[in-house]
Specification:
The chain has a single domain, classed as Histidine kinase-like ATPase, C-terminal domain (Heat Shock Protein 90, 2-Layer Sandwich). It is built from 4 helices and 5 strands, in the order βααββαββα. It has a 5-stranded antiparallel beta sheet, sandwiched between helices. A hairpin with a 3-residue loop joins strand 2 and strand 3.
Length: 151
């Protein structure tokens, strides 16, 4: 079966880039993953990595005097879960990262950190298997799918 013909569940959430958004985003992605059958152990890794991406957007994307927004998206085809965190902030000013990106890299099956859609802000995309050992077969939900719905 081709990736384009698989059923995909998608959810989006827009939040103000505040400390309170970190917990709300974590609960939101955990609920989405649970609803579509991701076991608790895998949800824990997802929640930690996703929270780290949201924390980076909240702490680093916007100057202190700017009310910023973060856009979140999650999509699953039943075998893989793809998540996205977008901000419209100042972007990654350095090629040196703290502990967050290595942590996300260790927990996610795949991660991309790129400039935002039109070169403004930062986009973090991560993929996670819906179960501990995904079946061989089609690749995860294409990032393009989550990119399109996250706009």
């Amino acid at each position: 079966m081709s990736t384009n013909s698989r059923a995909v569940a998608v959810a989006r959430l827009h939040l103000q880039a505040t400390v309170a958004a970190i917990g709300e985003a974590r609960r939101w992605v955990q609920a989405f993953a649970a609803e579509y059958g991701m076991p608790a152990a895998e949800r824990d890794d997802l929640a930690v990595a996703f929270s780290e991406a949201v924390t980076n957007a909240v702490r680093h994307a916007y100057p202190a005097d700017v009310d910023g927004e973060i856009k979140l998206a999650a999509a699953t085809d039943g075998a893989w879960l793809t998540v996205r965190v977008d901000d419209r902030g100042t972007g990654t000013e350095s090629t040196r990262f703290g502990l967050g990106v290595p942590l996300m890299t260790a927990l996610a099956d795949r991660i991309e950190v790129t400039p935002g859609f039109d070169g403004v802000g930062t986009t973090v995309l991560m993929e996670f298997p819906m179960c501990a050992a995904p079946e061989s077969g089609p690749s995860p939900v294409p990032f393009e799918t989550v990119h399109q719905v996250g706009q």
